[in-house]
Amino acid sequence: MTSTVITGIGELVTCDGTGAERLGVQHDAAVVVDDDRVVWVGSAAQAPAADEAIDVAGRAVVPGFVDSHSHLVYAGDRSAEFAARMAGEAYDGGGIGVSVTATRAADDQELARLVGARVAELRAQGTTTVEIKSGYGLTVDDEVRALRIAREFTAETTFLGAHVVPADYQDDRDGYLDLVTGPMLAAAAPYARWIDVFCEPGSPHAFDGDESRRVLLAGRSAGLGLRVHGNQLGPGPGVQLAVELGAASVDHCTSLSPADVAALVDAAEVTTATLLPGVEFSTRSPYPDAAGLLAAGVSVALATDCNPGTCNSSSMPFMIALAVREMGLTPAQALYAATVGSARSLRRTDIGRIAVGARADLTLLDAPSHLHLAYRPGVPLARALDLPAP
Ligand SMILES: [Zn+2]
Known about the structure:
By secondary structure, the chain is an alpha/beta fold. Helices cover 35% and strands 20% of the residues.
């Protein structure tokens, strides 16, 4: 056991306050951690002694960001597709097949190296927990391999065999669903905490409401928690399905009807709406009304959706800046959604806040205040704090 006292904190944001003060901002504060847990939070003048000390020289300290939606297990490059989209071509989900081909062709060692580099890139920008999905394998062996590699880096792994119908099953959707809900699920479940489905009836590559229900019910029977990609490209059944089945999260929520919002309000204790503004940025699409959702009482999270097609950004600070500039959140609301909100979407209370008993996941800002995350977009202010080895 090695305890460390962190002092010199210019502004401590615990995200563990209550009511209007839920950001829990403290000045002249110190934090003591013991191995991987926070054991004390309070006034620097009263901080107990510890084995080690770190003086952060006036920087702000916030909870490590929780990125609850990523697709980090892939090979290949789709920057040309991005350029084409910026030149006016429409996105319909079809480019995923390009990543599937490249990912299948990569060997295990190369794929693990790529994922490790991406996780390090997230951490260097302040993210301390990341959820990682499969979904670029789409065969039994390739999906299991993706989850096995993802599990080396996070406990939050998600089976996304129902990402798209792969080219080899284009004329046999039912056959692919039989595979995903049968042998593929059985092989993948030991390596996954969650199951997800790309529910988007408007895309010929993704799945409609009935197909998505089949995938989610099979996953639930296999003991997995539920997540849904829904209502991204247009109106659809994703949100209603997620709420009905008690999913932990429905992600994108770009195109919502009043009935969808009402359902999310009623389900706020169970189902979080995870917004992915990097996707709207990178596909030049209208942003969801995050401020309206929060005002209505929806549980809102922010994540990157880091993936090779529709948002190749691993930066939670960038998502916070977008949420403030483009979706109407205050800097405080955006930071809360990127920490506590995302943790809630993973049904976790040990991350996303700085409190006694929580994980010692702290992020330093080269700034005096959390306001700088949105005030100085694109500036590399945030990094995860590395603690002395136990
Ligand atoms: Zn996604």
